[in-house]
């Protein structure tokens, strides 16, 4: 007796696979315990009490005793005429992505975990650098904090936390030191005659009337003693004339021998 193998249509196999995967996923979801919403009770802000226009300072925001935080968004109220955000200065907890942007009078600080990174627990720290733009007292206030848990649930804190910074103007440039000039006594009278004269500029060594080199090892010498060069040139000229005469005599003897 011959047995025949029953073939199931491909669509039936695909449907059964999807149904099985869905059933497994549903069972795992039901079996997994529900995650609690992220928690935090307060926010702390720390900044120096004094700063100077044009010199950046660090602002620290701390979320103490947080639980199950996968991401957070901090809204910082800051007058753009008073401070500006330093590009790429934001830092946050290790193992995540951090970003900070300034828009009008708000600075947004965002952190999120990546991939399958676990949620955070404990004290969470964020930091940005700000540049003072004008002298005066400026207040930096966290007006809103949003926490996102590993299951997508959110917790929002609206209790403000702030820090006040007294900004001083830039230091004036140091004026030049006043007093008697160099080469003068306290009364302002020069202690020596100025260098140079009406006919010889200062710093130039005069050349003697006999054409000799300046004394004292001066470097500002542009003349040259041409006598050695003239003698060498005459010697080369005489050597060339002698060679020319020898070659002419040799050529003449060769022509006379050929004629004989």
Distinctive features:
disordered N terminus, alpha+beta, 11 strands, Immunoglobulin-like, 7-stranded mixed β-sheet, 2 helices, 32% strand, 260 residues
In short:
The chain has 260 residues and is of the alpha+beta class. It contains two helices and eleven strands, in the order αβββββββββββα. The protein has a domain at 44-168: Sandwich (Immunoglobulin-like), CATH 2.60.40.
Task: Give a description of the structure.
This protein is of the alpha+beta class. The chain has a domain at 44-168: Immunoglobulin-like. The chain has helices at 10-31, 227-259; strands at residues 44-46, 50-52, 57-69, 71-77, 83-85, 96-103, 106-113, 120-132, 136-148, 154-157, 161-168. Strand 6 and strand 7 (106-113) form a beta hairpin. The model is unreliable at 1-34 and 211-224 (pLDDT under 50).
Indicate the topology.
Layout: H1 10-31, E1 44-46, E2 50-52, E3 57-69, E4 71-77, E5 83-85, E6 96-103, E7 106-113, E8 120-132, E9 136-148, E10 154-157, E11 161-168, H2 227-259
Parallel strand pairs: 2-11
Antiparallel strand pairs: 1-3, 3-8, 4-7, 4-9, 5-8, 6-7, 9-10, 9-11
